[in-house]
């Protein structure tokens, strides 16, 4: 059987020959190995010195376990840096429902080809991790502080390598303090008979023991020494806003620099403007350069942004040549992207595919989605789930943003989220009109809005709570219907009847050939 056995008593792991375990991505693997060598074998750091130091730090047995745990806590904090930026909020009330955008995390961290990271994100451990630690309003612990401060700690360790061991020891001390809050060791008191008690000539008769009284004394002693009761008597940790840490888009900025990117994006913008101004000849001059520029992620995202600015309302009617060029750009962007849609290009093109159209004849309109159905991303169920959850999050966020007439440009985020806003009130204003005013102040994220709503939930009356729950449910159902129509548009081709007929015909030919072959074999 292909089963990996971990022997905790013997300290060994047995891996079958047919199982290959992926390694941690670099530089995480090297950093973890270096940290473990500092803890387990500190003498290796000075083994090559001509004059080694006289004294080498000897690890204490009590703290060795905590230091090893601290190393692996830091390893997972480094591996999951930016994960809170990829949390998608689906519901706030009555209980928050949060999912994780796996493709966006792998794309932003450049871990698409990392088998280890993919397996970690797919395992049940990470699913429970997101459900437990995803809510933005809850009691925080050592892990949350480590995750939020890891970027600053890592910068200090790069400047001074001695800080690495110091940070590991500080984290290990916190773990030890959590497990041993009382510095005094507990010693159980056992009654001992006095000296000379057994040398007495006249031994008194032993009294009959009352079993009920003995059991009561035992229960009383257990209650006094019960760890759970002592922990329950302590003051519980108060919930607060969970620190988001460093944003995932700021982790790999130095790796995503593209030469002449500004010039390429300017050519892309001019080409799209020429297309929508119906200057087809000018657009065709720079069209090959634009297609080459779409090899980069920044150009594909810029294309989606530029195309969305030319959509007014729910439909954008184009001329035939305009439609052909726009569809070709969309196909090129989807072709250069993967089926996971780790950069969000397909999700950004999804509403545009049902907006751009052209008139073929009287009463016949062709939409752009009929020309981009062949890409593999539409067959990926995880893409549809992630795109659906992102749009639900946008609508949930819009529900709780305040009305325009109650916003002053001088107010901060705390004033914006002072009280829960009725979702019905926010529907009176268009989202495009609101952004110009809200952009004057720092617009809160979906997790920040959820944290504030969760904080105020207990102070809201029951009627208001029912109204908020009903509004979120209606938002979720409306998006589900909307995405059902989108999936039908992109997954079911217009000539499905002809394709099924061709498939049946090919199957009949295969059956006929198989029967003929079998007949000749017999």
Automatic annotation (TrEMBL):
A single Pfam family it belongs to is: SBF2
Q: Name one GO biological process term.
A: regulation of Rab protein signal transduction
Q: Which Gene Ontology molecular-function terms are recorded?
A: guanyl-nucleotide exchange factor activity
GO CC terms: cytoplasmic vesicle
Q: Which residues form the UDENN domain?
A: 1-140
UniProt xrefs under PANTHER family: C-MYC PROMOTER-BINDING PROTEIN, DENN DOMAIN-CONTAINING PROTEIN 4
Q: What is this protein called?
A: UDENN domain-containing protein
Tell me which species this is from. Answer: Photinus pyralis (Common eastern firefly)
């Amino acid at each position: 059987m292909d089963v990996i056995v971990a022997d905790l008593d013997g300290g060994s792991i047995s891996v079958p020959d047919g199982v290959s375990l992926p390694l941690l991505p670099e530089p995480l693997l090297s950093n973890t190995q270096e940290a473990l060598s500092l803890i387990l074998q500190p003498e290796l750091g000075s083994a090559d010195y001509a004059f080694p130091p006289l004294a080498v730090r000897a690890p204490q047995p009590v703290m060795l376990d905590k230091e090893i745990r601290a190393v692996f806590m830091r390893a997972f904090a480094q591996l999951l840096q930016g994960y809170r930026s990829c949390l998608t909020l689906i519901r706030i009330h009555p209980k928050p429902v949060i999912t994780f955008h796996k493709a966006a995390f792998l794309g932003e961290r450049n871990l698409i080809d990392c088998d280890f990271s993919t397996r970690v994100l797919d395992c049940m451990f990470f699913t429970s991790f997101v459900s437990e630690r995803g809510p933005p309003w809850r009691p925080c612990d050592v892990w949350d502080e480590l995750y939020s401060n890891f970027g600053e700690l890592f910068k200090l360790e790069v400047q001074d390598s001695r800080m690495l061991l110091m940070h590991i020891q500080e984290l290990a001390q916190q773990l030890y303090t959590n497990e041993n809050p009382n510095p005094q060791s507990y010693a159980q008191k056992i009654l001992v008979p006095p000296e000379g008690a057994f040398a007495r000539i006249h031994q008194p008769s032993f009294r009959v023991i009352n079993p009920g009284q003995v059991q009561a004394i035992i229960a009383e002693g257990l209650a006094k020494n019960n760890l759970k009761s002592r922990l329950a008597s302590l003051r519980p940790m108060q919930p607060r806003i969970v620190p988001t840490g460093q944003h995932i888009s700021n982790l790999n900025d130095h790796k995503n620099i593209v030469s002449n990117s500004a010039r390429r994006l300017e050519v892309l913008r001019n080409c799209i403007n020429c297309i929508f101004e119906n200057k087809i000849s000018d657009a065709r001059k720079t069209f090959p350069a634009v297609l080459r520029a779409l090899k980069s992620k920044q150009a594909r995202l810029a294309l989606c942004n530029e195309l969305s600015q030319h959509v007014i309302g729910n439909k954008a009617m184009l001329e035939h040549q305009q439609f052909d060029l726009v569809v070709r750009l969309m196909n090129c962007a989807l072709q250069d992207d993967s089926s996971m849609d780790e950069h969000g290009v397909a999700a950004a093109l999804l509403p545009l595919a049902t907006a751009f159209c052209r008139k073929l004849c009287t009463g016949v309109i062709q939409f752009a989605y009929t020309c981009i159905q062949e890409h593999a991303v539409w067959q990926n169920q995880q893409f549809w789930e992630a795109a659906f959850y992102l749009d639900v999050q946008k609508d949930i966020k819009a529900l709780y943003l305040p009305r325009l007439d109650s916003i002053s440009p001088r107010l901060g985020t705390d004033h914006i989220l002072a009280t829960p806003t009725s979702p019905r009130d926010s529907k009176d204003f268009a989202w495009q009109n609101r952004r110009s005013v809200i952009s004057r102040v720092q617009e809160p994220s979906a997790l920040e809005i959820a944290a504030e709503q969760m904080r105020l939930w207990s102070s809201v009356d029951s009627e208001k709570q029912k109204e908020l729950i009903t509004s979120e449910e209606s938002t979720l159902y409306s998006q589900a219907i909307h995405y059902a129509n989108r999936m039908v548009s992109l997954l079911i081709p217009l000539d499905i009847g002809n394709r099924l007929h061709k498939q049946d015909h090919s199957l009949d030919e295969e059956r006929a050939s198989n029967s003929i072959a079998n007949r000749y074999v017999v």
